[in-house]
């Protein structure tokens, strides 16, 4: 029975011809690839960088104020000696603004951080 199944599988592989397909070519047996239209926004203007404050800063239109946005995401998967397997996920978002004022340079930083732990305890264990 096994010999018959393996022979049928080998015959199926020999009769089916595989062809390589490049990205953008139509799939055999289907119609041509449709082009998606990406309309350009009429109000889109290029961002103006602020090299005086460092990389990543762009100037706000109509002012001398510059802003930068950044952040990070962290995911940990592991095994805890107390609770078995678990995950820990964290995210950080930072918005920073800089600009001149009448009293000197103004710097504003808004930082938001969140974390969710599911079974990965990282604190010290209290023995009872």
Detail the topology: elements first, then pairings:
Layout: H1 2-15, E1 58-59, E2 66-80, E3 84-101, E4 104-118
Antiparallel strand pairs: 1-2, 2-3, 3-4
Task: Describe it.
This protein is mainly beta. The protein has a domain at 45-120. The protein has one helix at 2-15, and strands spanning 58-59, 66-80, 84-101, 104-118. It has a four-stranded antiparallel β-sheet with strand order 1-2-3-4, with no helix packed on it.
Shape call: flat
Cα-atom radius of gyration: 29 Å
Give the number of helices.
Answer: 1
Average pLDDT number: 76
Sheet having the most strands: 4 strands, antiparallel
End-to-end Cα distance, whole Å, is 62 Å
| Strand order across the largest sheet | 1-2-3-4
Into which percent range does the helicity of residues fall?
10-25%
Spell out the key features of this protein.
single chain; 128 residues; mainly beta; 4-stranded antiparallel sheet; 4 strands; 39% strand; flat
Give a nutshell description of this structure.
The chain is built from 1 helix and 4 strands; from the N terminus they run αββββ.
